[in-house]
Amino acid sequence: MDLGFTMKLDQQQIADFEQDGFLILQNVLSESDRAPIVSEYDALINALGRDRGHADTAWESMSFEQRFTRLITTDPDAYEFLDISLPLSHDLSDSSGFHAGPAVFNLLTHPAILDIAESIVGPEVVSNPVQHTRIKPPERALNAVGQGNSNIAQTGWHQDAAVVLADAEASAILTVWVAMSDATPEMGCMRAIPGSHRWPDLAKHCPGSTGTGEIYIPSPLVSDHQPVDLAVGAGGVVLLHKKTWHGAGPNQTDSIRWSFDLRYQPSGQTTGRTCFPDFLARSTQTPDAVLSNAEHWSERWHNARRDIASGATQAVFNERWETYNTDPMCA
Ligand SMILES: O=C(O)CCC(=O)C(=O)O
Questions:
Q1: Residue 144 pLDDT
Q2: Which structural domain range is residue 258 located in?
C-alpha cells in the first residue's frame, strides 16, 4: 500500500552530497526489509556448504556468521556464488557463479532506495550492473588468497568512474552503498576524501594484481589528503559520487561486515559495463517498461553468462589502467 511516504533527499542533503561527494543516510531500511536478504543468503550459504563439502556436523550448529566465515576462509572461490555480479572475467563458462535472487531484486527496486537514487539521477532511473555484495569476515580469519579480494577484505583507494569503461565518462552513475550490518571504523567502514569528486582529472589507478576489479590509487597520491570515515548503522545507506576518492579498511572485529554496493544512473546513458544487464527501475515517461519481475531480472544475468560463455557477446571490462603495470608508483 502506498502511504505517500518518501525517502527523497531534501535540498540540504543534496547540497551536502554536491559539496562532499558523499552522503550518509541512517535508517533507510528496517530490519524487516533486510530479513529476506539474510534468509536468502542463509539458504545460499547452506547450499554451498553442502555442495562444496563443508557441511559436517559442526556446521549444523554454527551461526550464519560462523558458517559464512568458515566457507569463505577455507574456500574463497565460493564467493563468486554470493556476489550479485558475474565475475569480471573473459573466461566465463555456463557454470560461472553469481547470485540474482528475488530478495536482492527487491533490494535493487526498494522504493526507499529508488527515492534516494531518483533525488540525484532524476526520474528515469536505470539500475547499472556494476554491483557487488561484500561480506567481509574478520580479517584475522582470512588467508593470503582472501587478502587481495575487496569483496571479502579491505578495499583499496579508487574512484568508481575509474572502474567502468572510459566511454561512460559522461554517464552520471551514482553509487548507493547499503549497510546490511553496522559499518564502524573497526569493521572497515568506507573512507572518503571530502570534495575529491570536484578535482578535474581522474586519478592515476594501478591495475591491481588480483583482478580487474581491484584497481587502486597509489598511496603516495592519497597520503597528502585527509580522509573521513563513512560509518553507518545496519540499514543505512552511503551515497558516493562516481569521482569521489574512497576505500575501506580491514574488518578488525569478530563480526562480519556486510554491504551491497548498487549503482543507478539516468536512462539513455551507457553503463560502462554493457556486457552485463542493466534495467529500467523507475520511470515516469515509460512506466510500462520498468522491470518488476525478479525472475526476468535473474534470466537477464543467466542470458548474459550464456552469451559471454558462447562467445556471442564479448566480455569487455575496464582495462585502461593496465598501461601503468610498470609504473614505479604501482610496483
Ligand atoms: O564496501 C567496500 O569495501 C567498498 C565499496 C566500494 O568501494 C564501492 O562501492 O565503490
A1: 75
A2: 18-34+102-330
Closest CA relative to residue 255, chosen from 181, 189, 191, 190: 181
Q: Which of 261, 262, 264 to mutate to test the pocket of ligand 1 (most atoms within 8 A of CB)?
A: 261
pTM given for the model: 0.97
Å from CA of 247 to ligand 1 middle: 6
Residue 324 belongs to a domain with what CATH number? 2.60.120.620
- 88 domain-assigned: no
Tell me the residue ranges of DSSP E strands in the chain. 22-25, 125-136, 155-158, 174-179, 190-192, 228-229, 237-241, 246-248, 257-266, 279-282
Q: Is residue 261, in this structure, part of any structural domain at all?
A: yes
Q: Judge whether 109 lies within some domain.
A: yes
pLDDT of residue 210: 65
pLDDT in tens, 117-168: 999 999 999 999 999 999 999 999 987 767 778 999 999 999 999 999 999 9
Sheet holding 228-229, edge to edge: 155-158, 246-248, 190-192, 228-229
Contact at 8 Å (CB) between 266 and 121?
Answer: yes
Q: How confident is the model at residue 1 (pLDDT cuts 50, 70, 90)?
A: very low
Nearest CA to ligand 1 atom 5: 261
* Ligand 1 atom showing the smallest separation from residue 248 Cα: 3
Structural domain count of the chain: 1
